[in-house]
Amino acid sequence: MSWSPDKTKVNSWNEWDPLKHIIVGRADGGCIPPPEPALDAKVPEESDMRGMFGPRPQHTVDAANEQLDSFVSILKKRGIRVDRPDPLDFNQPTATPDWQTETMFGCMPPRDVLLTIGSEILEATMSYRCRWFEYLCYRPLLQRFYNEDPAMRHEAAPKPRLTDADYRSDYLSDRIGVEKRLQWTADKFFVTTDEEPLFDAADVLRMGRDLVVQHGFTTNLKGIDWLARHFPDHRVRAVNFPGDPYPIHIDATFTPLRPGLIINNPQRRLPEEQRDYFLRNDWEIVDAAPPAHQIPPPLCYSSVWLSMNVLVLDPKTVCVEASEVYQMEQLDKLGFEVIPVPFRDAYAFGGGLHCATGDVYREGDCQDYFPKQ
């Protein structure tokens, strides 16, 4: 079946083939969720969000949606089909027999929840209680895709219980300190245990036959093992980044731009023993340019390194947040057409341009970019 913007085809094997169809999130109803083990470990100790929860101010929702809508317009003008999720009422208590929480989170970052591998869209387990029901925002779209594409596979990883056994009590202290966090990260001692498989889709980079998965706060070793069993035709490789005191989601740390080229956060470099796999297959790993901002926006969980959270439209074209002048300059020198996208008002709702999107269709098939094993 040839692709048409009027009829769905699910197909995406990597982060850089020509993009034709994508999901872009919404900020509607976004909440700061209440304390829970996974969240408490993620929020920096100096953050203005500690101790806060509930609906985000409406003016911030409006500003974020304005930039999300503008981003959608940019993509549509490039001939890319865009679909959007259906927000829930996130400001309500949710519970399972094992836990309860006062609010949910939102549906701005599809990349966290949905993983597209070939013709399959997989719902991730999610490792936050506040995000347990987030997949429901995407079910109407996935049902439509399934009905329109006879080759599409809709899968869901086993829903975890997320009991206290899934989290290390060591991380519940208010004052751990960055130095200790860095040591724990270097030792691969994270807030999540291996009680049951846990992974967020945003910890997975799709690189043809290889799936590169970050082991950290939101994805554990059992989750990586589950992915390897679920995708037996792929090579699933675990990576970690010792310089990150809050190792959550790989796409502000390690960003492939085209076959053979990756930018790596210079404060979170891939260890040498893991880097060798890329180098012997003739991949170049370069330090990403520094961010243009020294602090994140107000009420934002993410680091300033969302500067490198870019969306590649094809191997020659990339979208970058409009104020990230150093990142744009670097990518221009690397030979890309750079599309500036104002997006900083949306950061607090779940991340940058890559976070806010989920692939449905990219041209191309599954290739082996790492033949030297």
Throw out a few tags for this protein:
about 375 residues; alpha/beta; L-arginine/glycine Amidinotransferase, Chain A; 8 helices; 19 strands; about 20% helix
List the SSEs and their pairings.
Elements: E1 19-24, E2 31-32, H1 37-42, E3 54-55, H2 58-77, E4 81-83, E5 94-95, E6 100-101, H3 110-113, E7 114-117, E8 120-123, H4 139-148, E9 153-156, H5 178-186, E10 204-207, E11 210-214, H6 221-230, E12 235-239, E13 254-258, E14 261-264, H7 272-279, E15 284-287, E16 311-314, E17 317-321, H8 325-333, E18 337-341, E19 357-362
Parallel strand pairs: 1-4, 8-9, 11-12, 14-15, 17-18
Antiparallel strand pairs: 1-19, 2-3, 5-6, 7-8, 10-11, 13-14, 16-17
Tell the overall outline.
globular
What is the CA-CA span between the terminal residues?
34 Å
Q: Into which percent range does the helicity of residues fall? A: 10-25%
Total count of helical runs of at least 4 residues: 8
CATH architecture label name of the domain at 19-237 and 341-362: 5-stranded Propeller
User: What is the CATH class designation of the domain at 19-237 and 341-362?
Assistant: Alpha Beta
CATH topology of the domain at 19-237 and 341-362: L-arginine/glycine Amidinotransferase, Chain A
Radius of gyration, CA atoms, in whole angstroms: 19 Å
- The tally of beta strands, per DSSP, is 19
Unreliable segments (pLDDT under 50, ≥5 consecutive)?
none
What fraction of the residues are assigned to beta strands by DSSP? Answer: 15-25%
Largest sheet: 3 strands, mixed
Annotated CATH homologous superfamily of the domain at 19-237 and 341-362? L-arginine/glycine Amidinotransferase, Chain A
Strands of the biggest beta sheet: in what spatial order? 4-1-19
- Element-level helix/strand string: EEHEHEEEHEEHEHEEHEEEHEEEHEE
